[in-house]
């Protein structure tokens, strides 16, 4: 039996998160600047309030100062937090820190956790994840990874270039992916790679520039980084040498889904704003919402949000019950990223000129959400993964049960023609 009801304690958490975002976070949105982001002092205060409300670091184990929620519980809380772009920041569950905290919890040594995870959970520092490289390095295709790390005595020396590294400016440390050996890893399509914890004040790890971008209000921007003879000790290796791509999956599958959870909150708020406007604004003798074309936009958005939410809940359940959810998170990520873009766009259209003003958050949402169809795997790559899985399953069925094209068995004359090589 499928049960979609929320337990009383989860319902309470949902309502408390919603109230916190409404009362404390949304009023602060006016300080979110499209060029300079959100003032650090104001974020500190919001975090203090979130902690006082018992809503801090929901995804982290209680042992490390978090609330210890599972993925299904997170999907409820993150969506509510996501009603504002500042909500996840206030609760300290925004990207890329949230994914990095998860990875550190799973893979780091006790000493690394004390040094990096604890201050990250407490909100004292920020972090970044450095994987993507400028051409001809790794982008959608990780096998093109060029950044290398070689042993020198008891140290490692890293060299390479990275770009679009979110949050790098002002971060305390980076988790940096580098090729550590020639030859093949477990997956023959990928080189061996490892992850390194690099302090941002390492002189070999230099931010070249903050890349001007559509969504400039992310804390720390998206940065280009030059890594030149960057020396780190053996203790900087995160997990085992050569397991970098495996850990990237440990980080990416849940992080993909938590992105969806947060962005779903943006979609829901956009629809709420559009519906309010459609109820109150009149044109040609009736409210906007009574015009069929506006009603259709509202209905489509509500339906797609509902479908997106159920996909997130299901993928969360797969992860909670021990699955890797690669297939489910690919489908969910593609659908949610495209849905949120459509929903925000429709909301902006319904609100007319008011939609593009900075009086409403829609213009900021519109600028910010576009990139979600690219990062954590562009839609095209996820569609490739999904199609590959479907085709593989079909091939397996054909192998075990014999290939009988649908309908062909009932048309022996056609299959007979095919057998004779005459085509269908
Ligand atoms: C806002 C933002 C934040 C980011 N933050 C980080 C970060 O913190 N750390 C980090 O390491 N990276 C980050 N990235 C990089 C992100 O992970 C990459 O953008 C993503 O992996 C795609 O790589 P690429 O941009 O190099 O695209 P490319 O590899 O240059 O591909 C360009 C386009 O080609 C198409 N394409 C590529 N391959 C195929 C294919 N096989 N089939 C069909 N179409 C294809 C897709 O449409 C794709 O968008 C961020 C990106 C953005 C936009």
From TrEMBL:
A Pfam family cross-referenced in the UniProt record is Acyl-CoA_dh_1
Looking at the record, the residues that make up the Acyl-CoA oxidase/dehydrogenase middle domain are 128-229
The prosthetic group or cofactor this protein requires is: FAD
| SUPFAM superfamilies for the chain | Acyl-CoA dehydrogenase C-terminal domain-like (SSF47203), Acyl-CoA dehydrogenase NM domain-like (SSF56645)
Q: Start and end of every Acyl-CoA dehydrogenase/oxidase C-terminal domain?
A: 242-391
Give an example GO molecular function: acyl-CoA dehydrogenase activity
GO cellular component terms, alphabetically, are: cytoplasm
Report domain Acyl-CoA dehydrogenase/oxidase N-terminal positions. 12-124
Q: State the UniProt keywords alphabetically.
A: FAD, Flavoprotein, Oxidoreductase
Tell me the Gene Ontology biological-process terms attached to this UniProt entry: fatty acid beta-oxidation using acyl-CoA dehydrogenase
Top-level division of the source organism's lineage: Bacteria
Task: Provide the family line.
Answer: Belongs to the acyl-CoA dehydrogenase family.
How does this chain assemble? Homodimer.
> This chain belongs to which protein, by name?
Acyl-CoA dehydrogenase
Task: Give the organism the record lists.
Answer: Dictyobacter vulcani
């Amino acid at each position: 039996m499928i049960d979609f009801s929320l337990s009383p304690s989860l319902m309470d958490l949902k309502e408390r998160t919603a109230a916190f975002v409404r009362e404390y976070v949304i009023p602060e949105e006016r300080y979110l600047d499209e060029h300079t982001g959100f003032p650090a002092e104001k974020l500190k205060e919001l975090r203090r309030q979130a902690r006082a409300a018992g809503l801090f670091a929901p995804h982290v184990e209680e042992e490390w100062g978090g609330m210890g929620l599972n993925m299904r519980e997170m999907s409820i809380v993150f969506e509510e937090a996501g009603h504002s772009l500042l909500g996840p920041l206030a609760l300290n569950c925004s990207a890329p820190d949230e994914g990095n905290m998860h990875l550190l919890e799973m893979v780091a040594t006790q000493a690394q956790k004390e040094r990096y995870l604890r201050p990250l959970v407490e909100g004292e520092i920020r972090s970044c994840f450095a994987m993507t490289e400028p051409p001809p390095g790794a982008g959608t295709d990780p096998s093109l990874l060029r950044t290398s790390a070689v042993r020198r005595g008891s140290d490692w020396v890293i060299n390479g270039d990275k770009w679009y590294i979110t949050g790098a400016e002002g971060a305390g440390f980076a988790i940096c992916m580098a090729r550590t050996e020639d030859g093949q890893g477990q997956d023959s399509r990928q080189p061996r790679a490892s992850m390194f914890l690099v302090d941002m004040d390492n002189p070999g790890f230099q931010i070249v520039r903050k890349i001007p971008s559509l969504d400039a209000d992310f804390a720390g921007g998206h940065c280009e980084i030059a890594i030149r003879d960057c020396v780190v000790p053996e203790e900087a290796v995160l997990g085992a040498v050569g397991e970098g791509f495996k850990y990237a999956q440990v980080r990416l599958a849940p992080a993909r889904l938590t992105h969806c959870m947060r962005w779903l909150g943006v979609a829901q708020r956009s629809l709420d704003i559009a519906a309010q406007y459609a109820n109150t604004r009149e044109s040609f003798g009736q409210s906007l919402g009574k015009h069929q074309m506006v009603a259709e936009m509202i209905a489509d958005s509500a339906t797609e949000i509902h479908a997106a939410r159920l996909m997130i809940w299901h993928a969360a359940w797969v992860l909670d019950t021990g699955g890797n959810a690669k297939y489910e998170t690919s489908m969910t990520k593609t659908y949610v990223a495209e849905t949120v873009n459509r929903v925000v766009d429709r909301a902006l259209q319904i609100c007319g000129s008011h939609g593009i003003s900075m009086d409403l958050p829609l213009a900021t949402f519109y600028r910010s959400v576009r990139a979600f169809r690219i990062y954590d795997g562009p839609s095209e790559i996820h569609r490739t993964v999904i199609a590959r899985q479907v085709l593989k399953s079909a091939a397996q069925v054909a192998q075990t049960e014999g290939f009988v094209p649908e309908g062909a068995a009932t048309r022996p004359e056609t299959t007979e023609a095919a057998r004779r090589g005459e085509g269908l």
